[in-house]
Amino acid sequence: MTERRDDELEKSLSAASFAVDGTLVRPLPTFSAFGDMPDMTSADSATRRRDQALDWFLRLQAAPGDAQLRAGMEQWCAADEANAKAYRKAERVWQLSAQLAPSTQAQWPVEPVLAPVVSLPVRPKRRRYWVGGAIAACLMIALAPSLSLRMQADYRTGSGETRDVTLADGSLVQMDSDTAIAVEYAGDRRDVKLLRGQAFFKVTPDKSKPFHVRAEALEVTVTGTAFNVDVGAGQMRVAVQEGSVKVDDWRAAKALAARLKPGDRLDYHEGQARVDTFSPEQTAAWRKGQVIADDMPVSEVVAQLSRYTPGLVVLRNDELGRKRVTGVYDLRKPQAALRAVLQPHGGKVEAYGPWVIVLR
């Protein structure tokens, strides 16, 4: 899905443009929110490959004369044609962004950032000459999924923004930062698709019209309850605060949990489901501005914090991502929280301007 969206973005940027009231307009592809969504494993692989390509691209832009670095990049590209394709895409999008950044910025304003930003050390002056183009490329690569979400979503939030949405039946959806949903009420069904991010649902009881939430392969069915659904960090999670829910893998047509009760949490990753327990009061801690990690992988904490940072966060070190942390992290200070997460394991936070953060 990630590569397909990048391709769609590239096509839209390359397409013939037309003017409306003197403003440059470029056609964008259309999407159906209630069509099939991608396999999580393939989407994660594409995202990881994109991040690796971006990392090579940034490092070579910073040191174009480094023969050893370039040889390493070429070896990485030669190892897999998909690697080479990802790197070529980064180069092409950068070239396009250099031409289109002003008009793109005018059409798609930066989302409001409500969380305070902690300044990071300024990079050495020798890197400044490439920062503008590289950041534009990174933003265009990162923006590809966001552009398609604008076509699919009925409601969405930007970086650092949360939102409460009351649906037609009185059900409440509390949307976390960087989240998108599509809503379809028809006949005897109430359907919500979680396209990205996470949301807390407080469902108005109606036994004649079950409430369904789809998130990737998961389908959660309830008549009236309160629960949180999260798509991120390579897995899907359902946590119940009140009532009960049933969870299925709708693609594989198999039941994952006939009944989750308050304090139950289901994690689903690569076709495997695991149910454990937690304190119901901790459900959707993001609503209190917190990430509560209890022996949680670094990659999962980073995924939650990255929703509150503008631009792109790249976790470069897979081994670091598998390390585990315990603590309470402040979503209002995401960059400080990132440093707090990495510090016990010797990780580093590198800022390439305000829009790109690389974690090593």
Plain-language structure description:
There is one protein chain. The chain is α+β, with helices and mostly antiparallel strands and 360 residues long. The radius of gyration is 21 Å and the shape is globular. α2 (40-62) packs antiparallel against α5 (128-152), α3 packs across α4 (81-107) and α6 packs antiparallel against α8. Helix content is 34%, strand content 31%. It is built from eight helices and 20 strands. The strands form four sheets. Strands 3, 4, 5, 6, 7, 8, 9, 10, 11, 12, 13, 14 and 15 form a 13-stranded mixed sheet that branches. Among the domains are: 155-280, Jelly Rolls, CATH 2.60.120.1440; 289-359, Phage tail protein beta-alpha-beta fold, CATH 3.55.50.30.
Summarize the structure.
The chain has 360 residues and is α+β, with helices and mostly antiparallel strands. Among the domains are: 155-280, Jelly Rolls (Sandwich); 289-359, Phage tail protein beta-alpha-beta fold (3-Layer(bab) Sandwich). The chain has helices at residues 2-14, 40-62, 67-79, 81-107, 128-152, 298-306, 318-322, 334-342, and strands at 18-20, 23-25, 155-156, 163-166, 172-175, 180-186, 189-202, 211-215, 218-222, 226-232, 235-242, 245-249, 254-260, 264-269, 272-277, 290-297, 312-315, 324-330, 349-352, 356-359.
